[in-house]
Amino acid sequence: MSPRSVRLLVVDDDTVDRIAILRALRSGRVDAEIREADSVDSALAVLYEQQIDCVLLDYYLPGGDGLAVIEAARNAKLTAPFIMLTGQGDESLAVDLMKRGAADYVPKNLLTPERLVQSLRHVLRLSEAERREEEARRALARHANQLAQLTEATLRIHRSLSLNELIQRTTDEARALLDAGVAASRLAARGVEQRPLTGVSLSEEYAAREDRDGIREVAFGLIERRSTSVRLTGDEIASDPTCADVLSRSPAELHPRSLLAAPLRGRDGQCIGSIQLLDRRDGPFVESDEVLLTQLAQSASVALENARLYNEAQAATRARDDLLAIVSHDLRNPLNTIAITASLLRSDLLLRKDGDDDDAVQLVDRMDRGIQSMTRLIEDLLDASRIEAGRLVVSPRVERGGTLVREALDAAASLAEAKGCRVTQGPLDAGLEVLADRDRVLQVFSNLLGNALKFTPRGGVVSVSLRRVADSARFSVADTGPGIPPEHQPHLFDRYWKASQESRTGAGLGLYIARGIVEAHHGTMAVESAPGQGTTIHFSLPLAS
């Protein structure tokens, strides 16, 4: 037999038989704690009261039989195995009992120490194997359930972009996932966050404890200096110098029994915080718990980093909007004042009709052109901001495409003349009607024609055409300029992009804004160009019908 002492129950109403069984156990040197019973009721009373490793059970008993004992034990979820003790000629009964739950049988007329020890060894080994199998089955079921919970927890964690909500949700999910008494998380200060964020989750038992703040301090203090997951028993926690001061302020019976912690990591692999758990309800944390918490921490780290990046982007957007508010108000208002003053000054100079003031009028005109240029730049910056934020508003109505083309050509005529170029009307399906915000579409034409004239050499031609393509009206602005290299074309509509970074003309927003306006109309914009063969930019607008 195993050197481990086993707990046996001998059930037999015959005193002589019980003595024989006990003598056989002693002769076989079975190290056992033995209880005795002589009826169904007394046997069940022992089974209900004490953990028994094996029952040596006679079939014929006062108040019933051995089968009644087996069935009552199984109904009570008791797992002790039964060895049936049968009389001579009861072998068929014993076999039937084994089918009903008995583990083995020994005929009383063959009850020798060797036979009894052999049966006990066999039954106990079988019972231990079944116990381990059941533990493995329960562990597997628990792990499968935890994996399912982990998936659901991960989805819930990723639903929020608020750092405060994320760190608290991560803490709550970690405690629930591993059934811990305490969960505490810390996210270090980083980026726009100038203070660490913390989350604490307590079971009902711990929420009622007066030392809950101390418990949280234990968890944080222990993991601060670590960068890997850690799993500690109560003794290991007590021996850690980091916890000594906190533990000294709590009664010994309230000290943590076990700890599990995992680091939160940023995209660069650096530790950005941690999740810690204390006191799992069903015993110490095990290796599979550590793996599970590490997986949760990895997923939470991604969510937290995404939220942090989102917050930084939001902060940058707010800073940009604040700057644009200054530009649109604090800069445009003084420009309006200067423009009004320049207009009054020009009127005053013209009223004098003094030839000596011609130079002064030209200076005022130059000032006015500068004001107009700055005003256009301010409007471009505001439009670019609206497009980026998705707040560019257009009010489409039915417009004749041919009318829009002619208005655009008329507006560009003076600039073309100054450049020594011509703007002409190409093939035109003048009857097409489109859904368009007239002022915004004319702004698109102004940007496209202005850009084409800028790069078209003196004597060149810029033409505008219109035709129907499927359910859209396609406008085309073509020039006879030098063309655009293929490597530049993918960047043509990017914000602030200019082919020559040394150029000081414009902010590189014209084509970006033009595309934003077209897309706000649910249209598209494209470019066709080759070096030395000019450039054509197409944009489409939805037809009115």
UniProtKB/TrEMBL annotation:
Keywords: ATP-binding, Coiled coil, Kinase, Nucleotide-binding, Phosphoprotein, Transferase. It comes from Sorangium atrum. This is histidine kinase. Residues 326-545 form the Histidine kinase domain. The modification 4-aspartylphosphate is found at residue 58. GO terms for molecular function: ATP binding. Its EC number is 2.7.13.3. Residues 7-123 form the Response regulatory domain.
